[in-house]
Amino acid sequence: MTETEDVLTVAAGWRAAGEQVAIATVTETWGSSPRPAGSQMVVTASGKMAGSVSGGCIEGAVADAAMRTMQDGTPQWLDFGVTNERAWEVGLACGGKVKVFVETLA
Asked: What is the phi/psi pair of residue 53, to 5°?
């Protein structure tokens, strides 16, 4: 089982248990990035998390976006990079760029 399959298995289990779940997926990277495209993190409305989209440096911001997505049902594209002040604020000091797509698991 791959890391992505494991995260999706966890997400499916949480969903089957009645949790509301959002999935964040790295869709693109540029330069130095701690996690490759395809990396995933899942978040529940109750605050559980599994997986990783950044090795920790932007996960708080991604989890916040996942909570908003679960509340309003609207998927989000997140863009963190060297010219994005928010990236430095959340700790993306690696000098790279990461794009993340956040959606709910139906």
From this structure: -110, -5
Cα–Cα dist 43/7, whole Å: 10
With vertex at residue 75, the alpha carbon angle to CA 85 and CA 87, rounded to the nearest 5 degrees, is 15
pLDDT, tens digit (0-9, with 9 covering 90-100), for 31-56: 777 788 999 999 999 999 999 998 76
- Give the span between the Cα atoms of 75 and 103, in whole angstroms: 5
What is the reported pTM? 0.84
Break the chain down into helix, strand, coil percent, rounded to 5.
30, 30, 40
Q: Name the residue among 68, 67, 62, 106 with its Cα closest to residue 80.
A: 62
Query: How far is it, in rounded angstroms, from Cα 82 to Cα 53?
Result: 17
Q: Which two tokens stand for residue 47?
A: 């605050």
Tell me the two tokens of residue 51.
Answer: 């997986």
